[in-house]
Every structure is written in C-alpha cells, then in structure tokens.
Amino acid sequence: MLDNLSSRLGQLAKTMRGHARLTEDNIKDALREVRMALLEADVALPVVKDFVASVKEKAMGQEVLGSLTPGQAFIGVVNDSLTELMGKQNDALNLAAVPPATILMAGLQGAGKTTTIGKLSRLLKNDQKKKVLVVSADVYRPAAIEQLRLLADQVGVEFYQSNSWEDPVQIAKDAQDYAKKHFFDVLMVDTAGRLAIDEVLMEEIQKIHAAINPIETLFVVDAMQGQDAVNTAKAFDEALPLTGVILTKMDGDSRGGAALSVRHVTGKPIKFIGVGEKVDGLEAFHPDRLASRILGMGDVLTLIEDVQKGIDQETAAAMAKKLHKGKGFDLNDFKAQIVQMRNMGGIESIMSKMPGQIGEMSKHVPEGTAEKAMGQVEAIINAMTPKERANPALIKASRKRRIAIGSGVTVQEVNKMLKQFEQSQKVMKQFSKGGMGKMLKMAKGLKGILPGQ
Questions:
Q1: What CATH number is given for 101-297 in this structure?
Q2: Any known ligand binding at 440?
Q3: DSSP calls for 368-379
Q4: What pTM value is reported for the model?
Q5: Is 235 known as a binding-site position?
Q6: Are 116 and 275 within 8 A, CB to CB?
Q7: 248 marked as part of a ligand binding site
Q8: Where along the chain do the CATH 1.20.120.140 domains lie?
Q9: What's the CA gap between 260 and 248, in Å, rounded?
C-alpha cells in the first residue's frame, strides 16, 4: 500500500542538510520532490497544487529545533499536511437513530460493495455487539443475492431473503420493516452496481434512499482506480447525500492517490479502508496513522489495537502463570503464539505497521511468504506426539524423520523450525520472573488510553 509514495517521500529527510531555518530557497527542491511523488501516486492535480501550497506556507520560516535535521523538520510539516488533507481524524459510523440504524451502500460494479457489507457487518457484530441484518437489493447481477447470503452465514449475521424478480425499492422497504419488528440494531442494504455511471442506476438508488431514509449512505470505491475513483465519488455525491467513503483494495494499490484525493474533492470523510479478501480485512480509517505509514514511521496505534483484539487474555495469563512457576515454554505454547499472531492479522500485517527498518523490510517480503512459513511451522508441530510437544528434547534423528514425513517437509526444515523454537524459548525465559505479567498489565493500560476504548 502506497509503497511508491512512501519511498519517494522517505528520501526527503536524507537529502536536506544543515539549515537552522526552513526557507523558500532550501525547501524548493523538496517541494518539487513532493509534487512529483504525489503526481506519480495518481493524486488529482488540483489536490497536488493545494497540498504543495499548504506545505510551503507551513514550512516557511519554521525553526529547525534541537536534534532535528532540516529534512526531519520538513517531513514533520508534510506529515501534518497529509493528515489534514485526509481529514485530521477518524469519522466513526453514525448509528444514533431509532433502530434499525440503516446503512445504504452505493458504488460501481466490481468496487467490492457486497464483500465490504460482509466485513462491516462482522465488525459491527464483533466489536460493537450489534444485532445486524443484511439485505441485497441487487436484482441484476447474477448470484449477487446468494453471495451476500453466504457472507452473512460466514460472519454470523442474519440475512433477509430477496429475489431477482422483486422490485429493489420494495425489497429495501420490506427489509427495514422486518428489522423494526425483530429489533435489529443495524440494517445494511446492498444496491446494484453498474460498469459505468448511468441515469437508470442513479434514479433507482435515489428512490431506494428516499424510501428508507438511511442514517449512513456510504460510497464504496476501488482505490486502484486512482483519479477515476475520485471522479466517480464526485458523481455519486452529486446524486446522493453521501455521508462517507470506504476505499477497498488498498493493499493492492502501491500508488494510493485515491486515499489522498477523495476527501479533498468530495468533502466526505473516508470511514474505512478495505485490505485483502478475508472477512476481517476492514480497518477504521485514521488519517494521522496513514500519514505515518506513508512517511515510513509505522502505524503503532493500529498495531496495538490488532494485538488487543488478537490476544486471548486467558491463554496469555495461563502462559504467564506457567512461566512464573518455572515450567518451560514448550511447543504447545509456540503453536499458541502462532495462532495468536494469525488472530492479529498475520505476521505480514504486523510487520507492515511497525516503524523503522522492520516496516521497510516488510515491503520487500513477497506476499504470502511469511504466512506460508507460519503454516509450515504449525504443520510440523501438528505432526508431533503430545509428549514431543511437551518435551522437545525427545526429538532426535528418527523422530525428526517421522515428523518430516507426517508434515510433508524435509528433515532440514524440521531442524530449522526447532532452532526458531529454541530462540523463542530463550526470549520467553526473560519473562519467567514476572515479566509476562508486566506485559499484560501494560497491554491493559494501553487499552485504556486508546480512542474508543
């Protein structure tokens, strides 16, 4: 995500040298670099012009404080301006309505509306404990209704049955009546997309909007469309009273122009970004955090939130108790750590949000490599007997051969995994005198200071 922009802007801090104050003269080249980086990222030209002017105005005459280099001071200005451009802070969903709070989803065909409804309904159910009903008013696309039904089953929310021969407006009204009678907190309505904006599509969705009066009308747009995404968002905003935008396929876009343009052009906040195909691949959009990621400073707050969601407190507490009693960290615990990491979104997701060299390194790891390696480790542990997992010292040559055959890997890969385990074992020994307890207390403390906790 945003790799090209990130690498271009990341070079700025290294190129500016030795000035105590930022002036028009010493930021001229840096501003040119910012302009080029944004244009390459497919940011809309009017947005680029306004952004560069804003950075120049804020930077002019600014003192380079203390231990900062001029480049770092300039990057600080760029960071503030990026955050401002994308909306300063997260705009949460507004569900303050007499139940059901109705959410209407709009967008072009292929933007990912139906998948996003699955992701968002899961998030509302799991994180906000809402009772959610979903319905499809897309009677044109083959299998659209069935796709939403399968997604609803997958994430554990209720699906309102509609049929391809019914009127889309009537479907939405009937679903809303059903949601009221059965005390649902939220109703999410999927609508038909088209391959291009057309009058029939706009008229139909305007009628649905008038019939159900949703509290949120969200425009779902494919981030990989770049400037086209912004133009489409503008057209929909003129036809509907949009309340926000969801950018999908952000992980597939190395440029990121849509994320930087859409708020400025439409005036509507980006509420969520979609990453990956999995049902948990939806993140609340925080402009300040994305700005940090663009500039190579990581996204530590989102990482902490992922950790809090992914950690099973009972498992962690049991491990802390075990270590405190002097009982060793075994392969069952090692496997439990892998499961916890997967619950946090996987090692690649964790690495990408870390600041500094680790975050930079994640860009050069081929997609899926780390997850595949973790799956292989899990397969090797699964091929062991309970005794071997509890006492890895038992695993000698003949046992290694049996484990390799059982997990479909080579003996060398079994040896490599056991070495990784030994390294983890050494790290865990550091927590045997109460260190793990301190970590858990720290996690609880962080939970209290995070927004929305």
A1: 3.40.50.300
A2: no
A3: THHHHHHHHHHH
A4: 0.63
A5: no
A6: no
A7: yes
A8: 3-86
A9: 14
